[in-house]
Structure formats: C-alpha cells, structure tokens
Automatic annotation (TrEMBL):
One GO CC annotation: plasma membrane
PANTHER family: OLIGOPEPTIDE TRANSPORT ATP-BINDING PROTEIN APPD (PTHR43297), PUTRESCINE EXPORT SYSTEM ATP-BINDING PROTEIN SAPD (PTHR43297:SF4)
InterPro entries registered for this protein in UniProt: AAA+_ATPase, ABC_Ni/Peptide_Import, ABC_transporter-like_ATP-bd, Oligopep_ABC_C, P-loop_NTPase
GO molecular function: ATP binding; ATP hydrolysis activity
Compartments, record wording: Cell inner membrane
Record's keyword terms, sorted: ATP-binding, Cell inner membrane, Cell membrane, Membrane, Nucleotide-binding, Transport
Domain of life: Bacteria
Stated family: Belongs to the ABC transporter superfamily.
Protein name: ATP-binding cassette domain-containing protein
Organism of derivation: Pseudoalteromonas prydzensis
Pfam families on file: ABC_tran, oligo_HPY
Amino acid sequence: MQLLDIRNLTIELRTSDTVIRAVDKVNLSLKEGEVHALVGESGSGKSLIAKAIVGVLNKRWHITADRMHWRGVDLMRLSNEQRRKIVGSDIAMIYQDPSRCLDPTAKIFEQIAETLPEMTGSGFFLKRNRERKDRVKALIHKVGIKDHEKVLSSYPHELSEGVCQKVMIAMAIARTPKLLIADEPTTALESTTRAQVFRLLKSLNQLKNMSILMISHELEEIVNWSHGIHVLYCGQMVEAGPTQRIFTQPRHPYTQALLKSLPDYEQGLAHKEPFYALKGTIPTLQHLPIGCRLGPRCPKAQKACVVTPPLTKLHGHSYACHFPLIKAMK
C-alpha cells in the first residue's frame, strides 16, 4: 500500500526582498514497510522536506505541492487540527538536535510518558501508574539505555547528547507509528551506539513493518537494508531509485561523487593520499545557480546545463541530468 505520495513539492522562503526556493519540485513516494533514504550535503533541503511532511515549518515558509497524500488523504487540504491528528497517531519524527527538542523543565520520565498511547481498560490508579512506569522502562531499554533509574529521573541538561538522542528515539517509537522519519538520528552518537541505533531501526522495520524515511550521511550503513535512495542537491532531486541500482549504476554526476567519497576499507589509501571530494562548495540559498544547480561544480557541465534538466524515468530509476553517466537503454 502507498503510504506517502508527494508530487512537485516546493518550499519557498519569503523575505522582505525576494522569494528563495529552497526545495524545487521534489517527488517522493513510500510504500508500507519500505525504508527510503534522503541523502545529500548539508543544505540540500532534506530536513525541510521532513518538516513539511510533519507540518512543523513556521509561517515564513510557503509550501506548495501538486499532491501530498498520506494513505490516499491529501494533507494539504486538511485543517491544522485534522493534520495534527493524523501525524500524531501515524507519523513520528526523530529530530537532529535533541537538546533543543526536549523540554528543559521536565524530567525524562515525564516527557516519555506523555508520548505513550492512552491505556485501555479499567484498574486502580496504582496499577495503571505501575504499568505506565514499566512501559517507559521498556522503551528506554529498547533504545540501549541500561541505567534507566538515573536517566528517567534526570533533566535533559544533565545527560549527554548521545543519551538525549536515544530518549528522542524512544519518544518517537512509543506509539509504534506507521512512518518514522529519522533526521540524522546518529549524529551525536559514538560508533558503537550508532551501530546499535541502526540495528534498532532495522528491527523496527522488519519486525513491526514500520516504514522509515531516513535522512543520513551514513551511506555505507543504509545500503544493505534500505529499499530506495533519493539524492538531493540544493533542493533539487537529482536522482532516485532502488538502492542497489543507485550504488551500482548511478546516472547523475553528483550521485557518483557521493559514492566515490565513501572510504574503501578493503583497498585503503596510499600514504597522505586525500579522500575524493567534489570540488567547490554548495551555494547559499541567496545565490542559487540557474538551471541545474550542480552546474558550477559539475565535471560534465556544458552550456545546456543553464536550463533545468527534465526528469528521466527508466524502470523505477529517475534522474535529472542533460548528460547522464550511462545512456539509457532503448
């Protein structure tokens, strides 16, 4: 079943002087039980897309889309109250900066307990309270926090960034959402904890059939368990398709650059040999290039690139490039 279906999503920032198009006609679809990844450099618009789906962008951002369907319902046509009801029950998001998202005035136990679904049935107050504590404790253990008594009785500022991130994950999965949006969920974690979080997300997908939209720079971590990858650059979707096809046959030069920048642990590097990196830097939103936004940095750029390339689709693999790396088979 098609859970999420977005067509031509555009997000603009309106200032006193001009209108800045931060996300430009992005398409995204996600089926039930699938794991898709949004990848790209910082500033590509990945978090903006996630926040637009959840509906937490402030009024300075203007959002338009030909279609933004959640299980057949157009989210753009719902009232704020109707949309909050759907998002609150079916969609959860792990934010990138947990220290800013957690309430500094409330203890961790109270914050996690607020996210639990309402308990059904009757019973004494003490019994319900004990069940509530057990459910919070189980969530904390599930995300890899062993010292639950100390963490649950603490305020966010008393915990490390990594523990706060685990708390955010526990809050996100408390209601067992149908779609979990993970915005760089392992940014503040050490390597062992990062691997643990990825295993947790993978098990949620496989055992609970939870769909996941992953925003991550960890390409090597998601290749083995994601179904599709969407590559963004400066708010434009430059390539999208099945994970294995993207990794083995990239069509867009930017996708190829991302893959070439991954370290090859088997081959290794020569002494003082630098890692591969695409030349130049990502432009600011105020000075975006016309046409293909990768043009000034692209090694294959030509005059035709001053015009926005059309989206080419081939067997579930789509890309937007005038000069793709591999010519399409007829």
